[in-house]
Amino acid sequence: MKRIIFFIIMTCNLCTMWAVGRSGIYQHSVALAGYISAETGKAPTAYIWIPDGCQTVKAVVLAQQNMTEEMLFKNETFRKRMSKLNVALVWVAPWFSQNWDPATGCQKVFEEMMVGLAGQSGHKELESAPIIPLGHSAQATFPWNFAAWNNQRTLCIISFHGDAPRTNLCGYGTANVEWGRTRNIDGIPGLMIEGEYEWWEARVRPALAFRMMYPQSCVSFLADAGSGHFEIMPETADYIATFIEKAMAKRLLPNGSLCKIDPRDGWLACRYNPDLQPNDGDGAKDDIFTIDQRPKAAPYALYKGDPHDAFWYFDREMAEWTEARYAETWGKQPREVGEVKTRWSDDGQTLIVEAARDVRIEVISGPLCKETNYRFKVYPYEAGVDNPKRSFTAWLIAIKDGDKTYKRCVKPIEVKIPH
């Protein structure tokens, strides 16, 4: 009898592990009540990773399925950084809100989701834990709007290869949500990241304008030098982790509540001026200055550059780290990755990539895991096999690192998985 009970318990545990952690990351999941995805015709699933040994979750990074959110969450170094901070990761697949318009019911869906994850995991603090909304591209507007409607609960904001707050160029391609006259994100640190090879001035200008319209806002900016739209570099993942760490140190009080940051306690640094001709949408050539002509980063009150052309940073470390990222590639020559080919093994389970020896291949998103630099294995996807848009599509990135002469360069690769 004891053997039968043991067998039943082990079987249940294995089923739970298979349903939740097919990549070996997420420990718990819940279906989102009250929302039906147009992609699957059923409720999305929220997956949560909680650091091993975590007694109390201090904050939660919230992301919805798009692309590089997966790449970041599967980055072991990033998860180690989050473990030290007792920060959990929640990934929702498919997404349930791109613009975070409360009129759609997304706020209620989110709150019920957090209650459900608290019950599944045994971490009741998840019901009210501070949130770090993070989104890439089509999901890059939601973090700002989430914060505007949850400003007492938002620890910091990450818009990755994405959008400015209240932008008129939303990544999802339609109109933004109007905040109203009283809603704002004052005192909440927000980070906008845009890749060098996706540069578009019209995306940056609304962020600078927002800073002037809301002088108590704390908007940081990182130009992802040497990167395009479809990846997250290890050094950028580290930058995001440090941004989160500093937000916790400056905002999270012992009782779990959040205090506002006074932007005057931070630093200012000049906006990024690309050496490659920027596309500002009007076809005109823009004047740029060299890396040596940039005003020096300085404490808020001591900055000698034009504050209308500067972004806010926590401190000297973040401001100078940003400047160093820009100096690393500025003035170097661009180049291309070269030809990259893919083919499937006879059983349709292994993808073989053919590329030059100095080209590194990484997984961005989808049901592929890396075995070697040129071999990738299909695995049962956390997001299931019932999403015709995503279940049988993966994205890779081919990377050629920079040197003293050339910039780092990248090429995204779309891969169709055999059914």
Helix content: 10-25%
Low-confidence stretches: 1-19, 279-285
- Our count of helices gives 8
Overall geometric form: globular
* Structural classification: alpha/beta
β-strand percent reads 15-25%
The radius of gyration is: 22 Å
Give the termini distance in whole angstroms.
42 Å
Mean of the pLDDT scores?
Answer: 91
Assembly state? single chain
Biggest sheet descriptor? 8 strands, mixed
Counted beta strands: 18
Q: Helix-strand pattern, N to C?
A: HEEEHHEHEHEEHEHEEEHEEEEEEE
**CATH C-level class of the largest domain:** Alpha Beta
**Name of the CATH architecture of the largest domain:** 3-Layer(aba) Sandwich
The figure for the number of domains is: 2
CATH superfamily heading of the largest domain: Alpha/Beta hydrolase fold, catalytic domain
Describe this structure as you would to a colleague.
The protein is an alpha/beta fold. It has 2 domains: 24-329, Alpha/Beta hydrolase fold, catalytic domain (Rossmann fold), CATH 3.40.50.1820; 341-416, Immunoglobulin-like (Sandwich), CATH 2.60.40. It is built from 8 helices and 18 strands. The protein has helices at 2-20, 68-73, 76-85, 106-121, 142-149, 201-213, 234-251, 316-329; strands at residues 28-31, 45-49, 59-64, 87-93, 131-136, 157-160, 189-195, 218-224, 267-270, 298-299, 310-313, 341-344, 350-354, 360-365, 368-372, 375-378, 393-400, 409-416. An 8-stranded mixed sheet has the order 1-2-4-3-5-6-7-8, with helices on both faces. The protein has a 4-stranded antiparallel sheet with strand order 12-13-16-15, with no helix packed on it. Helix 6 links the parallel strand 7 (189-195) and strand 8. Helix 3 (76-85) packs parallel to helix 7. The longest helix has 19 residues, at 2-20. The two termini are 42 Å apart.
